Amino acid sequence: MTPSLERSDRPLALSRSVLGLLIKLNLMLGILIFGLLISTLVAQGPVMRALGAIPSPDNGRVIFGMRGIMVIGVLATPVLHLIFTRLLAIVETVKAGDPFIGINADRLQTIAWAIIGLELMHVAVVILANGVTVGTQKVDIGDKFSITPWLTILLIFVLARVFDQGARMREDLAGTV
To answer: Which domain range does residue 107 map to?
Structure first.
């Protein structure tokens, strides 16, 4: 392999490694969040005290909000898994030297829809957090609106279309040869 090709393979190898790690971490965190959620149901008093919310009739909204955020965290796990595994599959096709295939267009479109789902989950977390107060303090989870994820979603939908067109053009070219 030439030195320039080896250099260009390094980011690809790094991407594969990082995605593999993210897949494992995501599953681990999903299991941990689920365990925390279950523990708040089984041993509400000690767990909520450890989390800084003393169970009382006045803290019902706090506990509900915290559990709601945990549920969203658990639901985000398979969505993130879908994103990471689809992206890893795309990286594998790049490694194989054949990325402009129809399935990659489908994978990108799936990733874009999944990110929309994550952004809607983020909105739900913000709504839940805004409904929670601890004493006189509001829970601040950084509920600022950002256009960046929405632009990213548009970019991914466009890239999916580019991949689809590239795959079609390639098929047409193969048919004429």
So the answer is: 3-176
